[in-house]
Every structure is written in structure tokens, then in C-alpha cells.
Amino acid sequence: xSTPFWGPDFxxxxxxxxxxxxxxxxxxxxxxxxxxxxxxxxxTSPAVLAALGSTLSNKYAEGYPGRRYYGGCQxxxxxxxxxxxxxxxxxxxxxxxxxxxSGAQANxxxxxxxxxxxxxxxxxxxxxxxxxxxGSRVNFSGxxxxxxxxxxxxxTELIDYDEVRDLARQHRPKMIICGATAYPRLIDFAAxxxxxxxxxxxxxxxxxxxxxxxxxxxxxxxxxxxxxxSFTTHKVLRGPRGGMIVCREELAQRIxxxxxxxSQGGPLMHAVAAKAVALREAxxxxxxxxxxxxxxxxxxxxxxxxxxxxxxxxxxxxxxLALLDLRDLGVSGKDAETRCDAARITLNKNAIPYDxxxxxxxxxxxxxxxxxxxxxxxxxxxxxxxxxxxxAVRDPGAATDVATxxxxxxxxxxxxxx
Length: 418
Ligand code: DSN
Hints:
By secondary structure, the chain is α/β, with parallel strands linked by helices. The protein folds into two domains: 231 residues, Type I PLP-dependent aspartate aminotransferase-like (Major domain) (Aspartate Aminotransferase, domain 2), CATH 3.40.640.10; 126 residues, Aspartate Aminotransferase, domain 1, CATH 3.90.1150. Helix content is 44%, strand content 13%. The strands form four sheets. A seven-stranded mixed β-sheet has the order 4-10-9-8-7-5-6, with helices on both faces. The longest helix has 23 residues. The two termini are 30 Å apart.
């Protein structure tokens, strides 16, 4: 076996390309120097990064293991086979495809596998927490498909399953999508299955946000209920940036063909290998502890913010994220995001259900705990963070003070310890 001659080597990068080396190191400093509360981000392990930075990036491998359009794929085949086996075991799925380059690509492939343009789809509206690929007019899904949207009730801010059933009966969709980017509560997959069965629709679960919690057995799995589950691998799951699809065996060929050759060319074999590494990590008891703590932390953060007078949408969270309504503070989501950024707290503005503001302004922020939990923070730190967010949002003049406290906090729990 040959000795690896290359690994992620900042000195080598700096010697050859100082400009990009500076970008890489500055980004590492930014990650380490502040609080990362974007609900869809996390810190991958050094092992995942090593697979990503490997020579597997060089290999063209169009096709699937054992059925490639290029020679020399016998080694990378092993990475994909291992990854597929791990995904099937971890999620109890009959089939897995690790090739989607992203969550949007995974979703595109599901549409391509199950529908033809013009078909009707029932999905959660983006302003109520859905996703661009669930029917936004500026996305392929809204342009090429007839998408009917369901939302949350104004009084409870929870999915209205009666509305979903009524809309399904009225519009007879060919596919129903559940899954969201800003819905803090659990989704009732059994209810969606029963609605889909009643109208003869496929059930697609876009589990991108919460699949890591499923992997860690911290919340119920959609796999037994869905025809297809799509997701990203870089959120709570803590893998490389990318997508994945699991489905029932009878849909395996349709899904595989929709990914390649219909919508993608050569897979990113370094990313496929890194997904396999992340799946192995996610199958450990340590990861299960992590997934549980992510939720406990999100609940502590939401409670802490509520105690600071910031209202958690839907009354709190069962997952890794909380959505906060800032209207009582008289600050927009946009201004809150800017003020927090100045205090080294990274989070995003977010529309809240029935938001009177346009999306670029919005009345809310979304916070998530995947990254800070990876750093080893727990409920006590969440209380501190809630107070820091509230102070930064209320008082732009406090940014420097808050940033100093943030620096002290993250230095006790370093990301990528030296
Ligand atoms: N952009 C992701 C998020 O932040 O939720 C979803 O794709």
C-alpha cells in the first residue's frame, strides 16, 4: 500500500497560493472566533475533511459501482459500496443513492423519478417554513410543476393536517412533500402517509434538516412511512456538503436513473467517500448522545430567549432549531442578523408564519444548535448565548462588549481545537 503523499496541508497551499490560503485560514478563524448558530451548518470531523481533501476528487466514475462508464473505478467503487451499505443500515432503508451533489439536486432527482412536468404536487409553502424546491415560483419546482401549498395555522403555528387532507382531496396531487427548513416541531409522518394513501399520491419526505436527529435516534424516522426520503449530509448529520436519497427497493432504479444520467454527470467521489465516513460516525453511541444534546440545547436556547422576551414560534422546539418572533422587540430579522454579526454571533433572518415583512427584511431569526453542540456546549452555555443574542439585538452599541464575551465563551469550547 502506498503512503499518502498529500493531505490537507496549509503550508503547501500557502506556498503555492497565498491568496486562497488566506481565505481558508481566515474562514477557520471566523468559525473559531464566533458562535455559529445557522441551523443548517455544522463542523465536520477531521476524518470527513481528510476524505474530502483526497485524490478521490480526481476520478471520473459516471454510473454506479460495477457499472461505470470509465475504467479505473475499482477503488472508488469500494467507497460508494461501503457508503450505500452504511446508509441502508443506519436508516433501515432498502436502497440508498449517495451521488446527489446537494439537497436541491436530490430533490430535483425525486421530481424527475416520480413525476412529469405539469403534475400536481402538494408541499409546504416557503414563507411558512418550506424550501425553494418545494414549489417556489423562482425554482424549477414552481415553474415546471403545479404546486399547491399548505401552511401552518395562524393560532398554533403548527402544520394543519386537516388543511393538508382537504387540499389533497381537492387537488389530487401526484406527490405530497413534507419536511421544512424553519419548522421547529416534529412532523407527523403517519398522518402524511395516510393522506397520501387516501389520494393515491407518492409521499416524499425532505429530511434535510432533521435527518441527523433521525440517524442519532433522537426523533422518529420518516423512512418507514415515505416512498422516498431526500436529505443533505452537512447539517445535523455532520458530513460533507452534499445530498443523498433513500427509498424503497421498487423505486431504486427510477431514483438512480434520475440522479445519473438524467440530472447529474460524474459523481464527486471524494464527497461520496466523505459521506461514508460521516455515516460511520453517525452510527456510534457518541453520535446518539450528540443528537439528543442538540435537541436539549435547542430547547434551552429557545427557553432562554423566551425568558429574554423573544417569542419562540410554535411555542418552542422539538428539534435542532428555533424560530424567534422579534416583533415585541421592534427589531426586524434583517437588523437582528446584522447586529448579531457585529457581535460575532452568526445566525439568519427568517420569515415567521404570516410575516407582515418581505422575506429580505422579515420579522424573525432562526437559530440552531448543531455546531455549538459539536463544540461541547450544553444547557448552561445556551442560557448565556440567549442573553448575548438578546443584548446584541436590543442594543447595537453593545456589539463590542458582546463580542468579547462570545470570544471568551468559544475559547472555552474551541471548534477544531489546535
Ligand atoms: N439553505 C438551507 C437552510 O439553511 O435551511 C436549506 O437548504
